[in-house]
Amino acid sequence: MKPEDILKIANEEVERQKSYKCRINVCCSSGCLPFGALRVLKAFEEAIKEFGLQRECKVSRTGCVGTCSVGPVVIVEPGSYLYQGVTPEKAREIVKSHIISGEPLKETLYMNEAFFRKQLRLVLRNAGKIDPLRIEEYMAVGGYSALIKCLTKMTPKEVIDEVIASGLRGRGGAGFPTGQKWNFVAREKNTPKYVIANLDEGDPGVFANRTLAEADPHAIIEGMAIAAYAVGAEKGYIYIRAEYPLAVQTLREALKQAKSMNLIGKNILETQFNFDIELRMGAGAFVAGEETGILASIEGRRAMPRPRPPYPATSGLWGKPTLIQNVETLANIPIIILNGGSWFAKIGTPKCTGTKCFSLTGKVNNPGLIEVPMGITLREIVFDIGGGVPSDRKFKAVLVGGPSGGCLPESLLDLPIDYESLTKAGAIMGSGGIVVIDDESCMVDTAWFFTDFCVDESCGKCIPCRVGLLKMRNILERIMRGEGRLEDLDVLAELGEYVRDVSLCGLGQTAPNPILTTLRYFRSEYVAHIIDRKCPAGKCFKKEVMGEA
Amino acid sequence: MLGEDRRLQILERIMREHGYEKSALLEILHAAHELYGYFDKVLLEYISERLNLPPSHIYGVASFYNLFKFRRPGEHIISACMGTACYVKGAEEIISAIEKEFNLKRGGSTPDGKLSLFITRCIGACAMAPNVTIDNEVIGKATKEAVLERVRKFLGG
Asked: Which of A16, A203, A220, A522 has its CA 20 to 30 A from that of A435?
């Protein structure tokens, strides 16, 4: 295949789509699938057939639009009418009323525009709009033209310069400047080099990467290929959680299509560039998402991190230079190449450009997957997009950054979201989990839950993380049993800082965050447990699971 | 456990496809786990022999990852999600109720081998929390009552 052939396929697909008057997109992502999305898809197909509309109306299975709490959801184009809670019966009604009579079925429409108003969908640009299993649809919306541009018109250095100009930073959590990382790998002489796409989204309560892979797998593949071209890699791995079967299946199929069209493989698009991608599955280890942990896991070992330096850029997979990027970072690359780094740099804040995907969950009216420009405030996310906490309860805290993130109180809700301000407040960007907590939850119990998770997931290699976290959890359990002492709080804070400062990898370095932030912002709840022997939320003092260690 | 059935042939084929490479251990463990449902000593020793790796290494890797099971699961499997969103929305209450009603502990099975209860890491359907998966069917926005009723139904029938 030559670049012209790809453009031809894209044009043919565009023409084909134009021949339809309308299109029905049924979300068949992990959020909607368990709740009957495939039955809905089938019902639409049957209804279209029954009324003889096959030539006018196209029914497609697509990825997620983000409103995962009201699934199965369906979008009818033109007009982007979003239907919620669709059943097979309603599917037939929608065809009759909306498609045939032109009257949208009002009572089934999702009317909450606020959920979308403050969002900006760049990474999720195609989510819910294209069929992820048809590469032609990705091409029809400009897919793979960024790769073509790189291979035919840009040198690897020019590609890297464009990424540097964009100001893009790693979306896996730490926020390292992406272009700079590429530079490190590119200047290494040692070969072969590798590119790893990190899709080991192990944070409980986070599903942004999964959604991306299910909705737009080719954006990840294209981003990887461009990265490989820029740094001079010939082999890539996508490391994905085995708990995401649909994402695995979607990526596998997408890779097959990309290979069959010579978009990955040897002499890509009849150039000198070779790049092959393999899928590797994790097996349920949170620490495997850490960059040296992921290396060990791909090499077939326990995913135990190792000290850095040497950094993976110099000595990664099998000791070779390796570029490791989160899939969200990679999905940004094609639009940066097509629109230019300076265009991207205007989005977000000067130091934190672009957008970030967040999984918004917990006690919030509109949970789901959102993508917002950097610099937006937590208040806008929780109250404007999320619609606040359900009316009978009161907002208490928001946990930002997954199990090793921080619990922030109402007074910090006006914090603009970027890497630095979150870290300063004691939280992290992490993989973009936002869990809203109301007054029903006890903050000591919440801190216990996350600490318990990290104790479980600690690989055991370094002592501060292995022993320190366990001690911290035991102290929490003592407090929750009503046997706490005031000195415990000082010990917790001291231990927490110690574990944070001297642990080997990111897991241990961030694991004390939930305890440290709850101590900082919700100290009175700890004191109530210790002095008044009372849990303000009425959660503790009755757990049977306590005190086993 | 191994037997001379097709599963062993499939496993052998997969190992051959990976060229008996030590670096493909995790992939091979995945395949074996999928075929047999859990690991026992015989199976792990077999893999160790074929890949020419010490049994301690195989066990070390297999036991590091949460996904792998070392005991035969029950006929029916309840997997309760204990991700953050599910926990905040009361997963613990549902799990305790299952334990109490069917007299089993999380991670274990009933004595008759009919039912197992596992705690899973986040399944990523957080907006529908809490989620409980019963024999591969996800129940979203689960309540104690709905889950218990579902389980009672198939145990009775």
From this structure: A220
User: Domain B76-156, CATH 2.60.40.10 — does that match?
Assistant: no
Residue ranges, CATH 3.40.30.10, chain B = 76-156
Q: Can you give the pLDDT at residue A54?
A: 94
In this prediction the ipTM stands at: 0.90
Residue B26 with chain A: CB contacts under 8 Å = 280-281, 283, 297, 300
Rounded CA separation A453/A469 (Å)? 10
> Domain spanning A20-111: which superfamily?
Glutaredoxin (3.40.30.10)
Cα–chain center distance at A14 = 29
Q: Which of B24, B83, B124 sits opposite A210 (nearest CB)?
A: B124
Interface test with B, best of A203, A211, A361 (most B CBs within 10 A): A361
In this prediction, residue A173 carries a pLDDT of 83
Contact: A283, B67; criterion CB under 8 Å: yes
* Partner residue opposite B26 with nearest CB, options A201, A205, A297: A297
- Write the class of the CATH domain A443-530: mainly alpha
A30, A362, A437: residue with CB nearest B125: A30
pLDDT beyond 70 at B72 = yes
Identify the closest residue of chain B to A458 by CA–CA distance: B64
pLDDT at B93: 94
Contact between chains at A34 and B82 (C-beta distance less than 8 A): no
The residue of chain B with its CA nearest to that of A445 is: B88
Whether residue A435 contacts residue B85, with contact meaning beta carbons closer than 8 Å, is answered with yes
Domain coordinates in residue numbering, chain A: 20-111, 135-345, 355-438, 443-530
Fold classification of A135-345 is Rossmann fold (3.40.50)
pLDDT at position B3 = 67
Phi first, then psi: give them for residue A58, nearest 5 degrees: -105, 130
Å from B81 to nearest chain A CA?
Answer: 9
For chain A, what is the largest distance between any 2 Cα atoms, rounded to a whole number of angstroms?
75
Q: What is the pLDDT of residues A67-95, one digit of tens each?
A: 988 989 999 999 999 999 999 999 999 99
The answer to whether A213 touches A309, Cβ cutoff 8 Å, is no
CATH number of A355-438: 3.10.20.600
Residues 6 or more apart whose Cβ sits within 8 Å of residue A32 = A26, A64, A68, A71, A72, A73
| Residue B152 pLDDT greater than 60, yes or no | yes
Which residues of chain B lie closer than 8 angstroms to A204, CB-CB? 82-87, 121-122
Q: How many Å apart are CA A465 and CA A459, to the nearest integer? A: 9
